[in-house]
Amino acid sequence: MGILIKLGISLVVMAFLFIAPMGALDAGSLAIKDIAPEWYFPEWLGTSLHAPSFQVLDTTNKYGRYAKTNKIITLKDLIKFHGHFCGGLVESAGALRMAFDRLFPDGIVDRTDLRIVSNNSACGGDVAAYLTGARLRFASHHIDNALKESEFVIQKVSTGETVRVRVRTEAYPTEVRTQMKKIESGKFTPRELDRFQDLQWDYARRLITRPLQESFMVEKVSDYQWPEPICKDLGERRDNDYKNAPEK
Ligand SMILES: [Zn+2]
After folding, report:
1. What is the rounded average pLDDT of the residues 118-125?
2. Any domain includes 243
3. Euclidean distance between CA atoms 239 and 150, whole angstroms
4. What's the pTM?
5. Alpha-carbon gap, residue 205 to 146, rounded angstroms
6. Which residues contact 207 (CB under 8 A, 6 or more apart)?
7. Which of 10, 35, 76, 82 is positioned for an S-S bond with 126, CB 3.0–4.6 A?
8. Residue 1 domain-assigned?
9. How far is the CA of 246 from the centre of ligand 1 (A)?
């Protein structure tokens, strides 16, 4: 019975999510936002008042022009890419939401027009790549371990506008870091491992149940010295070259 009720609720949620007209592949407003709960995606991650999501603009295909509409990326999509739900993922998504609000006042993130610097955090680095379209192999995603986790420098390439975003010191629970160091030392009990997850999830919940400005600060940067590329030169990205090609 419980399963049937859950299934019913999920179907109702999905019905509300798919209300936008589907239309042609590249026309109209396509607003599909998948926040249905899954075993790896607790319901509150989708429904919390300040859970970030992202409208992104891409091209329609390789050597295609800009798409006429956009996509919505949610925390759930990020988890599918990254592999797990963790505090770092939610923290990084919140930080980048703040940065994009500054760089793209119309709310649509152009993933063909960004470069970013992150540290080498598995979680923050994945979020950086997914949300910006920047890639290490094309020297648009740089790594600088002098940055903290979930600290990013992001540039809108076409205008040169650059911002730095990071977590406010007072917003980060030191207990998470203490417990993380313990786990990374390799000397921990199973209970302590579970405790770390609980701490991270509590932190994530706190981040998205209050305005992001309370947890993150973003500032404009000028004269930023971009780090040297990590990868050797393997060639440039070409698939966005004709995004502004005329129709006829
Ligand atoms: Zn992670």
Report:
1. 96
2. no
3. 28
4. 0.87
5. 27
6. 50, 90, 91, 94, 171, 215
7. 82
8. no
9. 41
Q: How far apart are CA 248 and CA 203, in angstroms?
A: 52
Whether pLDDT at 62 is above 60 = yes
The alpha carbon of 224 and the centre of ligand 1 are apart by a number of angstroms equal to 28
Long-range interactions of 44-49: CB distance < 8 A, separation 24+:
44/205, 45/75, 45/76, 45/85, 45/90, 45/204, 45/208, 46/74, 46/75, 46/76, 48/205, 48/208, 48/209, 49/208, 49/209
Q: Is residue 3 part of a domain?
A: no
How many angstroms separate the alpha carbon of residue 124 from the centre of ligand 1? 8
71: nearest Cα among 112, 125, 29:
29
Residue 16 has pLDDT above 60, yes or no: no
210 CA to centre of ligand 1 in angstroms: 22
What is the rounded CA–CA span in Å between residue 197 and residue 218?
27
CA of 57 to the centre of ligand 1 (A): 25
Task: Compute, in angstroms, the gap from residue 201 CA to the centroid of ligand 1.
Answer: 11
In a domain, 169, yes or no: yes
Domain harbouring 162, CATH code: 3.30.1330.130
Q: Which of 171, 166, 169, 47 has the alpha carbon at shortest distance from 96?
A: 166
CA of 90 to the centre of ligand 1 (A): 9
The answer to whether residues 72 and 31 touch, using CB atoms and an 8 Å cutoff, is: yes
Number of domains in the chain: 1
Beta partners for residue 164, in sequence order:
153, 219
